[in-house]
From TrEMBL:
Species assigned in the record: Streptomyces ramulosus
Descriptive protein name: NAD(P)H-dependent oxidoreductase
UniProt xrefs under Gene3D superfamilies: 3.40.50.360
Highest classification ranks of the organism: Bacteria, Bacillati, Actinomycetota, Actinomycetes, Kitasatosporales
Keyword Oxidoreductase: yes
Domain NADPH-dependent FMN reductase-like, residue spans: 3-140
An annotated Gene Ontology molecular function: oxidoreductase activity
Amino acid sequence: MSRVLALSGSLRAASYHTQLLSCLQPLAPEGMHLSLFSGLGELPHFSEDLETDPPVPVRELWQAIADADGLIIATPEYNGAIPGVLKNALDWASRPRGASVLPGHAAMVLSASPGLFGGIRAQAQLREMFALLNVYVVGGPHHSRRPHPPRPHHRS
């Protein structure tokens, strides 16, 4: 059985992203189990001073990622960027230096935004971060906008 860990970058109770992630299990192929990590709001702000004896929520995040075969990250876009709570979680997950639980994982990045750009900038940031962290992002559409219709040819 493959295990996929889902992380929502939103702490809002009625989050579109959390709702989207919770709807994925019935769509998963047979033999794939998705679990939603709900402890992002419990993580302390990242500090190297805490790395050698991390708080319980950090150890829980590390263990959940280590136990997973892959990740699904659903991120909103706040002010053109990923939310601070998600950045904080990824900072923790990338540590301690040289012993991160992230390298080698496959990840899928998605957004569920009613905004014009659909979270594309936040997705791009995650893709860039994952490249640095040796996480393989599953390819596919980078946004949900429809292609522009062909432009009419004008004659002079």
